[in-house]
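Budget justification aside, the reviewers requested a transparent look at the raw inputs and outputs of the sequence design task funded under Objective 1. We therefore reproduce one unedited record. The lines immediately below are the structure tokens for a 337-residue chain.
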């Protein structure tokens, strides 16, 4: 009989250095995508797959998470927190967070920066059917150099794991959602800085561990840098990607839909006429000047976009005043480095 997998750990303690300057004041997993903190998208995805208990493994800016997520009741599951005084790396964080879980069944682990439509339930079933020690969600990308890359045999058992290399042997990458059996977690040394990618996976493979790859080609995006954050927002708003967390925030009145391609927070002023033609999110209290045009943009809370500005694929910092008639494309306006 298959065991039901009900526990998850979210790795949300990284420094998010590639996401600076946005991460100077907010940890990467709390940055908003389509108006909803990134971690919330993952919590809702986990709940929909049957997860009932989540530990957030925090370190950098740990204090930001608990006031927002509380004990999880608002999100329909139990949430607790494992805070690392100094960052333990992905493996050390998993070992530390697992102590807070109530059961000893397999655990779903999410990297805190992946937006995906992969079928998590199927990944869980695949893990059980293969009697795997670890199951990695894999996806194929055109350029795999910046990722962990695996080689598989015909049964989808992982033969090699290669972390970030110049000439990767395949384009099949670690897509950042794993299932670990509890005894594998317990084999990770305690209170040590450990990387699952550089130490745990290669170590398990050297010891004949049963690592399998669950290949899924649905939407996947690594939200590692500010450009990806903009893309994730516009993909969610324009329907290229989907997340029930957006629907729930709309239903709760936390965010609002102005038309099919624009979502916004409270008290936004749209001076008429203005045009927003695809995938924009406007933060609470912002003012969008008349005759301005915005496409694939995120405008921070209380920012002002001057009249006749044309902004394409651009991120406006909270509170920033974009002067009238500004033309900007692929820009980050008002962020200090
Ligand atoms: P960069 O600094 O820009 O590489 O981003 P990052 O710090 O988020 O690192 P990376 O993308 O490699 O991390 C993958 C995931 O693991 C992210 O969700 C991080 O938040 C998380 N993570 C990385 N290191 C740690 C750690 O030491 N502790 C915890 N709890 N989470 C971590």
């Amino acid at each position: 009989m298959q065991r039901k997998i009900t526990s998850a750990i979210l790795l949300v303690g990284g420094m998010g250095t590639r996401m600076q300057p946005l991460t100077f004041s907010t940890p990467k997993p709390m940055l908003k995508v389509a108006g909803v903190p990134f971690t919330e998208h993952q919590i809702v995805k986990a709940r929909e797959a049957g997860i009932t208990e989540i530990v957030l493994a925090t370190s950098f800016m740990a204090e930001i998470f608990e006031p927002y997520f509380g004990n999880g009741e608002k999100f329909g599951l139990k949430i607790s927190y494992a805070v690392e005084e100094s960052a333990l790396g992905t493996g050390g964080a998993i070992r530390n967070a697992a102590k807070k879980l109530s059961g000893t069944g397999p655990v779903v682990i999410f990297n805190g920066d992946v937006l995906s439509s992969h079928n998590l339930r199927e990944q869980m079933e695949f893990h059980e059917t293969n009697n795997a020690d670890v199951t990695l969600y894999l996806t194929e990308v055109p350029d795999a150099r910046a990722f962990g890359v695996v080689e598989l045999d015909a049964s989808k058992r992982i033969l090699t794991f290669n972390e970030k290399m110049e000439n990767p042997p395949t384009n099949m990458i670690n897509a950042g959602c794993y299932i670990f059996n509890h005894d594998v977690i317990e084999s990770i040394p305690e209170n040590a800085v450990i990387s699952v990618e550089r130490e745990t996976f290669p170590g398990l493979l050297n010891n004949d561990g049963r690592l399998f790859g669950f290949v899924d080609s649905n939407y996947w995006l690594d939200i590692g840098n500010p450009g990806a954050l903009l893309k994730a927002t516009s993909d969610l708003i324009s329907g290229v990607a989907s997340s029930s967390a957006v629907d729930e925030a709309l239903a709760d009145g936390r965010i609002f839909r102005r038309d099919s391609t624009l979502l916004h927070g409270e008290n936004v002023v749209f001076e008429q006429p203005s045009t927003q033609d695809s995938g924009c999110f406007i933060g609470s209290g912002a003012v969008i000047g008349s005759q301005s045009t915005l496409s694939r943009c995120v405008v921070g809370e209380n920012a002002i976009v001057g009249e006749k500005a044309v902004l394409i694929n651009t991120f406006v910092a909270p509170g920033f005043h974009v002067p009238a008639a500004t033309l900007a494309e692929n820009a980050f306006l008002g962020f200090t480095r």
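The chain has eight helices and 27 strands. The radius of gyration is 21 Å. Computational costs for records of this kind are itemized in the attached budget.
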